[in-house]
Design goal:
Chain B: One of its GO terms (cellular component) is plasma membrane. Chain B: It holds the Pfam family MbhD. The complex is a heterotetramer of chains A (159), B (103), C (87) and D (228). By secondary structure, chain A is mostly helical. Chain A is built from five helices and no strands. Helix content of chain A is 64%, strand content 0%. In chain A, α2 packs antiparallel against α3. The C terminus of chain A is likely disordered. Chain B is built from four helices and no strands. By secondary structure, chain C is mainly alpha-helical. The longest helix of chain C has 26 residues. The model of chain C has no long low-confidence stretch (mean pLDDT 85). Classes of the chains: A mainly alpha (159), B mainly alpha (103), C mainly alpha (87), D mainly alpha (228). Chains in contact: A-B, A-C, A-D, B-C, B-D, C-D. Chains A and B meet through α1, α2 and α3 of A and α1, α2 and α3 of B.
């Protein structure tokens, strides 16, 4: 047996690893469908974490059996909470997926950047304002609040 | 017993973490759904190991059956079901390499 | 608690099967390879749940294996229908 | 650059979570409320499955809220998807194995689903799991025959009756002078099928409601696939 590796360590690393992988996927993925998958994975890690908090050494499942003496049981409260969380999670997943279907029908694409650009353009058009400030990450030096004289120039530069 | 639990948890942890990474980096969306179902599969076994049969059963029913059902139906409606989808390919780390996405 | 030889052999075989299927899931060059690997893992997990019920000495976990076995079929059927595409 | 910040964010979050998790004692006896519930539940509720008695007996209102959330999610998904009358059925019919296998497995799924629901207070399982299985059972023929569809009106009637009966059972407890959703009736012997008062009735209502909601959600998702 590897020294220093305990059951506790393995389980916590798994749960936290799932949460971190899921959140990194939400931040990094370039496709909206992958974002939904990443959310599912992060939720799995969080559920595992909750169940781990109710674990108890040498205990049995919280179900009464016909036994002579009743051994110790694990904590039933986190299990009930996770039971609720899983069912709600699948409802949210279905809702997210149906929103994805609508986005695909509307914008014809699911890439995060393109959808965001099209959505911004649509919002700007419906609000009747010019969309002259770049929505991307700041590239180099840019004035914090563009002056009216500079905006025309910078827009021309962008186009 | 604790020794056995440790080995089971180790194998399941490796399985879940590697397939979680796989679900986010693999190019094909259907393979990603399959990998995500493997994550919830290992999770169900881990819940059973943690003496939570109720939660394990819920996770088995929801994660193995319903979640992959919903995601697969959504892939069919999203038009991402192709086995060799050429233009819809997306990778996790291709957000910055815009030229590759647009190609 | 000591394990009998039978349980040790069963657990070892299951672990090896999980690792081999995982290898195919990760390496699998095509998507159907990965889907079949995921289905195989579901079957292995079902038998793992049964062995876990024997290890923990409680019949409660057999219900979980029952649910898992039936619903993994439904999930795999859905993925397989998706591979068929819109025809 | 964005990848780097994303990874940095994930790493920092992981460090924070690890710091929190290292403070949790692993494998210690349960919290005080857990111990109280474990000792009091067999007399107060009478369900052999203590998780069930937490879900329905002690935290019944949470379950009602969960049902409400699931209902909201399902109806919002139906609303977002919209347009019921688009065409279906350009997909090929299923093969021989799927067609007859689906027909063969349907009664088994139905039996397992109702078994899980009815024994929710004795063995692991209950309304949610059984409802998921029922939804899968009724959806499986749709996978084999793309032209078929579920009757949304029947599903919504079942769902409405199940939800109403859940609330009515809760209100009946209120009329008896007890708390909302508190289990009533004769609790009988612990571990027999008819025990635990109204908990099995509540779980039947939950199972039917969840099954109807998920089935209509799935058939909503499966429709209009030939639109694009």
């Amino acid at each position: 047996m590897i020294p220093g590796v305990t059951l506790e360590l393995i389980l916590y690393v798994t749960a936290l690893g799932l949460v971190i992988i899921g959140l990194a996927g939400v931040v990094l993925s370039s496709h909206l469908f992958r974002m939904v998958l990443a959310l599912v994975i992060a939720e799995a890690g969080a559920n595992l974490m909750l169940v781990l908090s109710g674990y108890r050494w040498d205990a049995v499942a919280p179900i009464l059996m016909q036994r002579a003496e009743q051994p110790a049981m694990v904590d039933p409260v986190p299990q009930a909470m996770v039971l609720t969380a899983i069912v709600i999670g699948v409802g949210i997943q279905a809702l997210a997926v149906s929103i994805l279907i609508r986005i695909r029908q509307r914008y014809g694409n699911l890439k995060r950047r393109e959808v965001a650009e099209k959505m911004d353009a649509e919002i700007a058009a419906s609000a009747g304002i010019r969309r002259d400030i770049s929505q991307d990450a700041p590239l180099g030096e840019r004035p914090l609040s563009p002056l009216p004289a500079h905006t025309a120039e910078s827009r021309g530069g962008d186009a | 017993m604790s020794e056995v639990e440790l080995w089971i948890a180790l194998i399941l942890g490796i399985m879940m973490l590697s397939s979680a990474v796989l679900a986010l980096v693999v190019k094909n969306h259907l393979a990603a759904v399959a990998a995500a179902s493997v994550v919830s599969l290992g999770l169900a076994l881990l819940f059973a190991l943690m003496r939570a049969p109720d939660v394990a059963m819920t996770e088995a029913a929801v994660g193995a059956g319903l979640s992959s059902l919903i995601l697969a139906l959504a892939l069919r409606r999203l038009g991402l079901w192709q086995i060799d989808s050429g233009s819809e390919n997306s990778n996790l780390l291709s957000a910055s390499s815009k030229g590759k996405d647009d190609a | 608690m000591t394990l009998t030889l039978l349980e040790i052999v069963a657990l070892g075989l299951l672990g090896a099967a999980v690792l081999l299927s995982l290898l195919r899931l990760i390496l699998g060059p095509t998507t159907p390879d990965r889907v079949v690997a995921a289905d195989t893992l579901a079957v292995i997990t079902t038998s793992g749940l049964v062995i876990l019920a024997a290890l923990l000495g409680s019949p409660l976990y057999l219900d979980v294996a029952l649910i898992y076995g039936t619903l993994a079929f439904v999930g795999v059927v859905a993925i397989a229908r998706t591979i068929e595409g819109n025809g | 650059m964005r990848n780097l910040t994303g990874l940095l964010f994930a790493g920092g979050l992981g460090f924070m979570l690890l710091a929190i998790a290292s403070g949790i004692d692993f494998g210690t006896p349960p919290m005080r409320i857990g111990e109280a519930i474990q000792s009091a539940s067999p007399q107060e509720v009478g369900a052999a499955n203590i998780v069930t008695s937490v879900v329905l007996g002690y935290r019944g209102i949470d379950t009602l809220g969960e049902l409400a959330i699931l209902f909201a999610a399902a109806s919002a998904a139906g609303l977002v998807l919209g347009r019921r009358h688009t065409t279906t059925g350009t997909q090929r019919k299923g093969g021989f194995v799927l067609f007859h296998g689906g027909a063969l497995i349907f009664p088994f799924l139905l039996t397992i689903g109702f078994y899980i629901i009815f024994h929710g207070h004795l063995t692991p399982g209950g309304g949610f799991q059984g409802g998921v299985i029922l939804a899968a059972a009724f959806f499986l023929p749709l996978l084999a025959r793309p032209g078929a569809r579920l009757h949304h009106s029947i599903l919504s009637v079942i769902e409405a009756f199940a939800g109403a009966s859940f609330i009515l059972i809760g209100l009946a407890a209120l009329a008896e002078g007890q708390a909302f959703l508190q289990p009533m009736l004769n609790q009988d012997t612990l571990g027999s099928l008819i025990s635990a008062g109204t908990l099995p009735l509540l779980y039947i209502a939950v199972g039917l409601k969840v099954g109807a909601e998920l089935a209509s959600l799935l058939s909503n998702l499966a429709q209009t696939e030939s639109e694009q």
